[in-house]
């Protein structure tokens, strides 16, 4: 399969992952009162943090799928142009919403994307808290040329073993206890196996003849494994609730969506609305916690005495507001800055 073949369903799936993370932050932040309706929301989004794992898996898949022959410096510049302008803009927003300047080392760690290497909560959750995942992505990008060169040469059986081996690291590693729990939750090295799974999965899909795959059976398997894993993830301890139970299902969903796109089959994620939401998902992810904090500041929430209806309505308003802010950032910062930086990079060469 030729590298770079467009897979619109994967863009649409990005929105699903971002929405799960949003729902997780709504319910985990004490923004909902104890009521039947909100307990249902907690059941649905209790494992929403696994959306981050999906992003890491998808990042590896997409980078490997679209990889072309280019020098590492060119690859790193393209990733910088893709990620950093929006990171800088949302870091500035975090300073405004936070109402104060964090310690200079915390700001420096965040702006240089090394914050997730620190065991200090003030660092890896400092400034814009969700940007710890960009610290992980920066490490993945740094390692990508080396990893892609090695994994890209593997045969299908070795790729399958790589997938299984990386997943077993995620499952078994935290049993060491102590610092291992923090390591496999927050650090770039601890989250690297999820990225590696994406690389290996992309190679496997690329070497699979789409017409030889029974998509109905694959979709059924993906649905069963994903739902079961998601339900279990909401009932186990950290860090097994982050990736261990959901990674197999997520991998099956990615493979099924990619193969469906290659065959031109319908999926619920490849329509125009879902693809556009997927395009906004990066900006949405980076601003959604800031928007939630803004609502709390203005409305003096969270408040446990709110009714379920009012709390859910407020969460919906926050969702729509975050989408509006994401659209503004996407159209005024993310895309223009990327075009400008890539144009300058091309001129410099």
UniProtKB/TrEMBL annotation:
<feature type="domain" description="Acyltransferase 3">
    <location>
        <begin position="9"/>
        <end position="329"/>
    </location>
</feature>
<feature type="transmembrane region" description="Helical">
    <location>
        <begin position="274"/>
        <end position="295"/>
    </location>
</feature>
<keyword id="KW-0812">Transmembrane</keyword>
<keyword id="KW-0472">Membrane</keyword>
<feature type="transmembrane region" description="Helical">
    <location>
        <begin position="86"/>
        <end position="109"/>
    </location>
</feature>
<dbReference type="GO" id="GO:0016747">
    <property type="term" value="F:acyltransferase activity, transferring groups other than amino-acyl groups"/>
</dbReference>
<feature type="transmembrane region" description="Helical">
    <location>
        <begin position="129"/>
        <end position="151"/>
    </location>
</feature>
<dbReference type="GO" id="GO:0016020">
    <property type="term" value="C:membrane"/>
</dbReference>
<feature type="transmembrane region" description="Helical">
    <location>
        <begin position="12"/>
        <end position="32"/>
    </location>
</feature>
<feature type="transmembrane region" description="Helical">
    <location>
        <begin position="242"/>
        <end position="262"/>
    </location>
</feature>
<feature type="transmembrane region" description="Helical">
    <location>
        <begin position="217"/>
        <end position="236"/>
    </location>
</feature>
<keyword id="KW-1133">Transmembrane helix</keyword>
<protein>
    <recommendedName>
        <fullName>Acyltransferase 3 domain-containing protein</fullName>
    </recommendedName>
</protein>
<feature type="transmembrane region" description="Helical">
    <location>
        <begin position="307"/>
        <end position="329"/>
    </location>
</feature>
<dbReference type="Pfam" id="PF01757">
    <property type="entry name" value="Acyl_transf_3"/>
</dbReference>
<dbReference type="InterPro" id="IPR002656">
    <property type="entry name" value="Acyl_transf_3_dom"/>
</dbReference>
<feature type="transmembrane region" description="Helical">
    <location>
        <begin position="158"/>
        <end position="177"/>
    </location>
</feature>
<dbReference type="GO" id="GO:0000271">
    <property type="term" value="P:polysaccharide biosynthetic process"/>
</dbReference>
<feature type="transmembrane region" description="Helical">
    <location>
        <begin position="44"/>
        <end position="65"/>
    </location>
</feature>
<dbReference type="InterPro" id="IPR050879">
    <property type="entry name" value="Acyltransferase_3"/>
</dbReference>
């Amino acid at each position: 399969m030729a590298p770079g073949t467009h897979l619109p369903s994967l863009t649409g799936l990005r929105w699903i992952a971002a929405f799960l993370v949003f729902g997780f932050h709504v319910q985990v932040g004490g923004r909902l009162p104890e009521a039947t309706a909100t307990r249902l929301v907690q059941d649905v989004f209790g494992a929403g943090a696994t959306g981050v794992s999906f992003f890491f898996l998808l990042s590896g898949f997409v980078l490997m799928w679209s990889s072309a022959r280019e020098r590492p410096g060119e690859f790193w510049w393209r990733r910088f142009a893709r990620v950093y302008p929006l990171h800088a803009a949302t870091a500035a927003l975090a300073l405004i919403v936070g109402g104060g300047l964090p310690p200079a080392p915390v700001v420096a760690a965040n702006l240089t994307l090394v914050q997730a290497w620190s065991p200090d909560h003030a660092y890896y959750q400092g400034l814009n808290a969700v940007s710890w995942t960009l610290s992980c992505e920066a490490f993945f990008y740094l390692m990508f040329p080396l990893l892609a060169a090695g994994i890209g040469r593997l045969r299908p059986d070795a790729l399958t073993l790589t997938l299984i081996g990386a997943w077993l690291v995620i499952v078994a590693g935290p049993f060491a206890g102590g610092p291992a729990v923090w390591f496999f939750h927050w650090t770039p090295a601890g989250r690297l196996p999820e990225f590696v799974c994406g690389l290996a999965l992309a190679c496997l899909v690329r070497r699979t003849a789409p017409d030889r795959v029974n998509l109905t059976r694959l979709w059924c398997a993906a649905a069963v494994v994903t739902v079961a894993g998601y339900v279990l993830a909401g009932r186990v301890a950290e860090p097994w609730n982050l990736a261990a139970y959901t990674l197999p299902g997520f991998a099956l969903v990615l493979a099924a969506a990619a193969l469906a796109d290659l065959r031109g089959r319908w999926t619920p994620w490849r329509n125009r609305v879902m693809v556009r939401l997927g395009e906004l998902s990066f900006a949405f992810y980076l601003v959604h916690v800031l928007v939630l904090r803004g609502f709390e500041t203005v409305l003096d929430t969270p408040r446990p005495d709110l009714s379920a209806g009012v709390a859910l309505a407020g969460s919906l308003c926050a969702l729509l507001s975050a989408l509006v802010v994401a659209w503004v950032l996407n159209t005024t910062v993310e895309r223009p800055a990327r075009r400008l930086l890539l144009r300058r990079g091309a001129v410099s060469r």
